[in-house]
Please model this.
Amino acid sequence: MATLKDIAAALGVSVATVSNVFNGRPNVGCATRQKILRVAKQMEYRPNRAAQAMRTGRTRAIGLVLPDLTNPFFPELAQAVENTARSRGLLVCLVDSQSRPEGEADGFALLMQHAVDGIIWCPLGPRPPAQLKNLARPVVLIDRPRPGYAVVHSNYRMGGRLLAQYALRMGHTRVGLLSGPQNIESAHQRREGFVKAFPRSIDIVWEVCVGFDGVLTPEALAALEQRGRATLIVAGNDLIAISAIRRLAEQGVSVPEEVSVTGFDNIRWTDIVTPRLTTIAQPVGAIGAKAVELMQERMSGEKIASRRTIFDVELIERDSVRQLNSGS
Amino acid sequence: MATLKDIAAALGVSVATVSNVFNGRPNVGCATRQKILRVAKQMEYRPNRAAQAMRTGRTRAIGLVLPDLTNPFFPELAQAVENTARSRGLLVCLVDSQSRPEGEADGFALLMQHAVDGIIWCPLGPRPPAQLKNLARPVVLIDRPRPGYAVVHSNYRMGGRLLAQYALRMGHTRVGLLSGPQNIESAHQRREGFVKAFPRSIDIVWEVCVGFDGVLTPEALAALEQRGRATLIVAGNDLIAISAIRRLAEQGVSVPEEVSVTGFDNIRWTDIVTPRLTTIAQPVGAIGAKAVELMQERMSGEKIASRRTIFDVELIERDSVRQLNSGS
DNA sequence: CCGCCGTAGTGTAACGTTTTACTAAGCAGA
DNA sequence: TCTGCTTAGTAAAACGTTACACTACGGCGG
Model:
C-alpha cells in the first residue's frame, strides 16, 4: 500500500505538502498539486483510515444498531442506510442485538472501541437508552423517539387515521383491534390515530395487544373466536395481520368475505400472501436515507437542535378488506 | 478516553509494561499485573482500535458483502454472521450491493480503505470475482463456489434428491420444473439433484428457468397454463414457489388439490403463506457461523487449504403437496 | 534600498499502540 | 567474589496521518 511518504519521496516534496493536497488546503502551487494527484493515482494511493482516525479522532464509519434483521422492516432499512452511507463515503458497521439487551450493550461496546463517528439506532423495548449518556457521539434514533434525541419515523397517527377513514368508506363500523405493544410509541400512535379519528362513528368491539413479531397470545386467539362481532380487524402490523389471517383460515373463516383485515408497514410479503393485504406503507428507504443525512450533519458540525423528522404514510389498498353494503 | 499512558502514569510504570499486560506477554510481575488490571477497569480503559490497527495492520473488523438484504435468505445469514463475529470480538462492516456490480466494487474499495481483516462474500452473478485477486485479505465465499476459494454452502444436490424421493413417495411422477438461474451453481445443483435422482421414475414434463427473486417470465406463465400435464411443480426457491402459487390461485387453480408445489430455502414466510409450503430447509445460522469461523482461522494463521464446507439440508413437510392415490 | 506581505513549501511533534533492544537487580553455582 | 542467567521492567522507535510553526523568496509600496 502506497503512503503519503512514498508519494512525497517520488516527487521530492514533503509529506506535509502531499497531505495538504488531499485535504484541499491552500498553500500548494497548481503545478505541484497536479503532479501529486497524478502520481497518487498512478500509485493507487488510498489514505490509511486507521492513521487518519488516530490523528483526527474521526473514522468515517457509523454504527447501525437494530433489534432484529429477521423482522422484515429492518432489512429494507439497513439496505437504505448502507447505500446512502456508502454514497457519502461512510462505512456501516452492523449490530443485530437479536432483541436482547445484552446484545445491544455488547454491540455498543464494540462500536465505541472502534470509535465509530455516530450511531443510527432503533432501540429495543420502551426502557430509556442508558448507554446513550456516555456515548459522546451523535445518535440518530429510528422509529422510537426519546426526549432529547434526534429521531426519524413515519407518521403513525396519520396511518391510523387513514385506516379509520378507509374503514368507514368501506362500511365497517364494528372493528376489533389487534394492536402492537403499547409501550412502544409507534404501536401506541397507530392505535391512537385509528381510535381517535372517528370516535363516534367507529365502535371498538374488542382490543388485544400482541408483540410485533406476530405471535398470537391465547387472549388474541380468544378474541379471534368472537366471530360476527367485528367486521374488520385492524392489526398493529403486517406480521400480526398475516398471523390473524392464517388463524382465521385454519378455523374456516375466509378473509375478506367473512371478516376483513388490515395491516401496517407494507412489508414485501403483503403482496404475496392470500388475500393480498391492505395496509399502510412507510417510506422505509427515505427514512434510512434521512437518518444518514441527519447523522452526517451532526458528525461534521456544531450541536444541532434534536428534532423529529416525520414522514407521511400511504394507504395501499389490496384485497383483504370487503366493501360492506351500506345497510350492514 | 483513558489510554495506556494514563494507566502507566497513574501507577508510575511504563507504557510498555501496561501494554504487555493486555497482550498477555510475560515479563511482568504478578503484583503489578493485578494493579494494572484493577486501575484499567476502574478507568474503563478500552484499547484504541485505530492505534492498534495502525501499529499491527489488523483491525479486528470483517466485511460482509451481500447482493440484496431484501432477499429473505440474507437477513438471517447476516444476523448469524454478525452475532458469531461479535461473540469473537469482531466487528462486521456491511455492504449491500443491491445486486449491482458497481455497488459491489464501491463496497470493496470502502472495505479495503478501512483495512478490514477479511471479507465474507456472497458474490452476485456467475462472473468470476475479479476484485479478489488484489485483495490480499482472506475471503470466505457463501453459497457461490469459485475455484481456489473457501466456500460454505448447503448440500443442494441432496436437497434435490430429498425432493425427488418425497415426490415419488407422494405418488407424483409427472413434474414441472420452475428452476432458478442455471448459471448460478446453487440453482443448477438443486435441479441436478432432483433430475438425476430417479431418472426412470420421474418424468420432467416441462422446465422453465426464472430469477431467484420470483418474478415469473412470460415463458413461466405459459408453462403454468399447461394444466393437468404435471401434478407437481418443483420451484427453484420459495420465492418462486410462492409466486407460482399466487399465479395459480389467480387462475382459480387450487394448491395442493389440483396441483402440488414445492419450494427451497424455508424462508420465514413459507410458514405463513397459504397453503404452507413444503420445502427444503438450509441451516442458515450454521452457515453464517461457519463462515466466520473459517474467516478467523484464515485471519490469524498461515494459508489453509481452501476447502468447501457443505451442510446437510432437511425436508420440511407442510401442506403444499398432495398425496396422490397410487392409481393416478 | 528597506520593510513587509503573500505564496509555496518544509520540519516536526503529536495521536495510542506494539515491539525490539536494552538495563537493573537478584540469585545460583563455582 | 565473580560470572552468567533469569526475571521484571524500561526507553524509544516505529506505524501513516494531520496541523502547527516555521522559512525562503519574490515583489511591491514608499
Summary: Residues 13-17, 20, 26-29, 32, 51, 53-57 of chain B lie near DNA strand D (CB under 10 Å from a C1').
